[in-house]
Write a structure and sequence with these properties.
This protein is mostly helical and about 90 residues long. The chain is built from two helices and no strands. About 0% of the residues are buried.
Length: about 90
């Protein structure tokens, strides 16, 4: 089974030998090499899955989520915080 990079390297070496000996078509060698390449790309993800997560004890509860401050008033159009932006290209309202 191809469980690590050295196993896959061995398979790639065998594919190369079969191709060089004319016992494997170029198309089939390309397909097999592509499959091994895809397997190699998954190895880091598999390693991450096998490692325990250090922060696994963290639990997020709905009461701990920061919420917006509802005490502040929403600025109205008459408020000095309300700024109406208009450029010379805007049509009059």
């Amino acid at each position: 089974m191809l469980d690590n990079a050295s196993d896959m390297q061995s398979v790639l070496g065998k594919i190369f030998l079969l191709l060089a000996q004319g016992r494997l078509t170029t198309k089939r060698a390309a397909v097999l090499t592509y499959i091994v390449q895809q397997l190699l790309r998954t190895l880091p993800a598999i390693d991450r899955e096998d490692q325990p997560i250090e922060d696994a004890h963290i639990v997020v509860e709905p009461g701990n989520i920061p919420r917006p401050h509802r005490d502040s008033a929403i600025p109205s159009p008459a408020s000095p915080l309300h700024i109406e932006s208009r450029s010379e290209y805007d049509a009059p309202r």
